[in-house]
Automatic annotation (TrEMBL), chain A:
It is a multi-pass membrane protein. It is found in: Cell membrane. PANTHER family: HYDROGENASE-4 COMPONENT E. It comes from the Bacteria. InterPro entries: HyfE-like. This is Hydrogenase-4 component E. The chain crosses the membrane at residues 12-33, 40-61, 67-86, 107-126, 138-155, 162-182, 188-206. Keywords: Cell membrane, Membrane, Transmembrane, Transmembrane helix.
Amino acid sequence: MTGLGSLISPAATLSIAHVLAGALVLASFMMLYQDRLSSVINVLALHSTVLGVAVGWQAYIQHAPELYITAGLALGFKAVVIPIALQRIVIRLGIHHQIEAVGGISVTMLAGIGLVALSLVVMLRTAAHADALAREDVALALAVILLGMLMMVTRRNAVSQIVGFMSLENGLILAAAGAQGMPLVVEISVAFSILIAFIVIGVFLFRIRERFDTVDSAALDAFRGEAQ
Amino acid sequence: MTGIAYDAVIATIAIPTLAALILAVVPSWRLAAGINVGATFLTLAASTVLLRYRPVPTELFLIDDLNIVFLLLNGFVGFTTSMFSASYIAHELQTGHLTPRYLRFYHAMYQVMMVGMNLALITNNLGLMWFGVELATLSTVMMVGIYRTPASIEASWKYLILGSVGIALALFGTILIYLAAKPVLGVGMGAMQWTNLLHRAAELDPAMLNVGFIFLLIGYGTKAGLVPMHAWLPDAHAEGPTPISAVLSGLLLNVALYAILRFKMLLAMSHATVQPGILMIGVGLLSLFFAAIMLYRRRDIKRMFAYSSIEHMGIIAFAFGIGGPLGNIAGLLQMMMHSLTKSAIFFSVGHIAQAKGTQKIAAITGLTKSHPLLGWTLVAGVAAIAGLPPFGIFTSEFLLITSTFARAPLLAVLLGFGILLAFGALLMRMTSVCFGEPSEVSYPITASSISIFLHLGIVLLVGLAMPAFLYAWFAHVATLLG
Amino acid sequence: MDLIVPLLLQLFQIGLVILVAPLLAGFVRLLKARLQRRSGPPLLQIYRDLAKLIGKDAIVAGDASWLVVLAPYAIFVLTWIAAALVPSFATGLPFSGAGDLIAVVALLGTARFFQMLAALDVATAFGGLGASREAMFASLAEPAMLMIVFTVAVVAGSSQLSAIADFMHSQAAGLRLSLGLGLVALVIVALAETGRFPVDNPATHLELTMVHEAMVLDYSGRHLALIELAHALKLTLYMSLIACIFVPFGMAGPGAALPALAIALVGYIGKLAAGAVLLAVFETTIAKMRIFRVPNFIGAALMLGLLGTLLLFVSATL
């Protein structure tokens, strides 16, 4: 490991960290772009893989071995187990070929760019005193979080909303990993990703399925109670 | 560090955890309800011990004047709600709304929620506080959807999504605060400890604190039901079982607001930050007016009182926003009184809904004639929540308006107007529900009214003659809040 | 003497692109066929096709104006100049001062202008169809290309291709996020502009799916030969562009000796071959998009370019 460290200059290690964080932002954009459910889930797997690599790199340059566990969990659980489970559910519900009205990809992408710009400007101005690694990682992580929220807002299908939420969580994990030395939170956020994933997949989709024949939240909207 | 104090602190978390584990396996619902009541009573006892013996703050735990109030309130309302829940559940089983299998789950989740809330209150660590609020939220989400009707599934889905996004934003805010603290307090647990942060607040980077506070306000504000993040609240209250509505309104909203208060304390100590009060005043007024207007058109009784909770959270946020000694006292008092009153209202509404078999306001009339006990307690409750004297909420609202008038008359006028709006709606509805000719539909119920009387009694007592120690206590905390 | 060698090299480059272009197109076609388990046309088939076409009569529609006769020559010359300006194996050649990214974009734009006008001039339905589709794609692809140009130019400090290649070759560039985004965007734009999957199928003649083919349907003989050659030149141009900006390793600097030049030439051919392999694999694995989804695809390139530029303005190290 030290051999590798001497090959890469400090500036390069920083750049690699940023490229990985930027790849996560790119994966979020890819997720916004998809309109078929199975491809959305595949991009989630990609997203979590990139997260695993990014957190692993952070573990290496911060010399924080516990982050390797987080990276491993992200790779093993969120990149493999959850997408497979979601694919199974989607196939069982029979919606894997469904193309959903996403409400204009170009508008969504523009909004996404706006959000990325906003998060970069806010975080980079605010954290001007923090060290370079943390600052830009947190800025890009905020961009991923906002893009995850955008995904949840522009989608009508419950599965897509879950995937959007998971990408939001990935952004949080990146932020927590980038803020060096944050003690419990990395473990906690990973644990909660797993918990929410189980709750959501195991309980709600089947409850919804048992009540309706669709996971379309527009159908759920009919039961919204008196108009808000 | 006194051994007993430390034990009591651990007990507030350990007892509910143990109870949750036991309740997950106990098959008989009567026994489970009994264990539930017993566990909450023991937790309350542990909290009262902490009144007397205060432990020294450790890395993980902290008991100071601010959170002891909420801890006690938590224990008390948790206890009375469990008593209400025991009688409520009997009727739900009878009518077939719930099956015994779900009741095990329900009781276990109830205790898990108590663990989460207590953890959030007693901890000295930012991360653990977030963890506690998240745990409490997740357990209530599970409980809201327990009826498995389409409407309740929609309500719990919405609550899950909005709550999770809120929690995620709150975590991000916590990370930002940590980043601000890292240069000053070093890496690791030390930078996430309240006592350390408060001590060195002036040295923390103000810009980071500002941005962090905004995220925290949005994140925890979602949990507290502040507009515009409130969308989950009416549905969750209306569709979940009534004990959950009581606990949500009475406890969870308070815990979320407590979290915001902690951060407000931090920001107030640092002079270069944007004063958080302005943000809180804005959000508070927005919530107040929005909820007050929405109160007029509600057709479901629990939904109406849910909006009333939003309204009061707005008033409380406004109170802390205005700040100063009187403003803070008013806020604290209002939090306590609202918690007690709203849960009492939900207790009686729960039984009323069971008695009438419906939650629609139009179908419920003439309660004082058909069910005098329930009717008159509801009248008292609504009078209390609307801010009529001699109840405690009148005291806090009056205190708030007068202190605001001295500082910013325009805001006081707005505040008063909003309160009056809500007052009108509540009174209108109350007259239609409680008075007039009774509607035909009526089921027999055995109401447990002791909880209602306890709560309303305390509110009345505080309103008539506020105990001096209570006032002194609030005053002390108010100075901490800045 | 000092002037002769660079001048010869420059002329060699101009000739090289036009010689290599049909070979590259043929290689891609052969690879695709082999990947699809067909034997495919021979590697040098396109040369033979061009020779055959040149020998044939050029038939022009009766209603067409002089534009239809002029267009193939204009398109060919403009594309050839653009392709020749992109440094392939050596930087700092005599004409490299004119080798500006924006100039390349402008030349290609002018060629596209002639292409579309000529297609409209023939007044067939297919011509109009092809031209309107081409316009739809170009309205997004050109801004995307410009965003990429801005990104690269801000990073390298110049929009001249030779200078960019030298900058990227040196260690000063490092691994930068905006360049990564620019690369992805450039690949998408290249796919769109060269009429490859998933934007357009170069082998189709179905009216539902034609874009480029629809515009050249009425050409024959030497006109068709020129247009086909221009099309192949465009593919070479874009591959050279990607290689020059993002993979400039091995390119010989000004005044390099013969061995270095030879190595650089071999390297350049290698890069083209690698690009051909990647393109063939990509085209085999992906299906063509519906026409109305292509603006989303190219729009994504525009967004990525925009994001890359944005990152440069907001942060110094991204």
